[in-house]
Write a sequence for this structure.
């Protein structure tokens, strides 16, 4: 068994998952990189070096999840942290979102978190490890035209808290981050829409999108010893977005 702690990061080929994998490697972990596409995972593994292995698979499929767990144990002999980051976004209003798109978000965003957490649990019990889920501010408050995504991420937030109650009694912590829209490929289309970017900037007190590395830092904190008594938290990483009660910026309006 490796003396280094081992983390599994789902959705590790791009964006938040990639930044998180690289951050844990910097912090001295073995890293198991999971995602649907092998090529991006291989590139991240190349950047990390000898302490990373790839474990491609679809987290919404139990057999794939078990293969990820088996690969982690085969490579490193232990699992200390699971970061459930893999997710999909399918916009659509009440009568516009298809059944298939709604189901896709539930299977990946909700079932995927459950499958990976439960499959890793026997090993987390041995190491007194912990789980960090990637929810969203959209799992704490609603968005227009995103009710399916809100539903899935709301489930992640409450699953986090519910599992924290149960597993905390065994010394296994379960927490989550709830980012605002991050500067990743999922938001890439926004950068070409100045009106959309201005709308985001107007709502976020810090005036910009969060960077993946900034989310990764908070995930690493929640997984680490400095957060040893933090359990059941869904921590916004949103530049102050949720500090607002939703009303417009009166100061800015008065200047106009």
């Amino acid at each position: 068994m490796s003396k280094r702690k081992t983390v599994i990061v789902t959705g590790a080929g791009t964006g938040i998952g990639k930044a998180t994998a690289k951050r844990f490697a910097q912090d001295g972990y073995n890293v198991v990189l999971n995602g649907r596409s092998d090529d991006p995972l291989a590139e991240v593994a190349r950047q990390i070096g000898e302490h990373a292995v790839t474990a491609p698979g679809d987290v919404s499929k139990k057999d794939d999840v078990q293969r990820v767990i088996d690969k982690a144990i085969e490579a490193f002999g232990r699992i200390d942290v699971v970061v459930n980051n893999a997710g999909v976004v399918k916009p659509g209003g009440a009568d516009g979102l298809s059944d298939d798109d709604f189901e896709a978000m539930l299977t990946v965003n909700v079932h995927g978190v459950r499958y990976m957490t439960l499959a890793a649990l026997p090993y987390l019990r041995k190491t007194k490890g912990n789980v960090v889920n990637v929810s969203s501010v959209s799992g704490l408050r609603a968005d227009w035209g995103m009710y399916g995504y809100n539903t899935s991420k709301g489930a992640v937030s409450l699953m986090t808290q519910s599992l924290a109650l149960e597993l905390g009694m065994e010394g296994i912590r379960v927490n989550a981050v709830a980012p605002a829209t991050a500067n990743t490929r999922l938001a890439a289309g926004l950068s070409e829409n100045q009106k959309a970017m201005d709308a985001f900037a107007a709502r976020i007190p810090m005036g910009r999108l969060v960077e993946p590395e900034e989310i990764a830092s908070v995930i690493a904190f929640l997984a680490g010893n400095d957060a040893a008594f933090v359990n059941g938290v869904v921590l916004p990483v949103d530049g102050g977005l949720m500090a607002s009660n939703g009303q417009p910026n009166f100061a800015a309006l008065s200047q106009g």
About this structure: The longest strand covers residues 173-179. The mean pLDDT is 92. The first helix runs from residue 15 to 26. Residues 6-255 form a domain with the Rossmann fold fold (CATH 3.40.50.720).
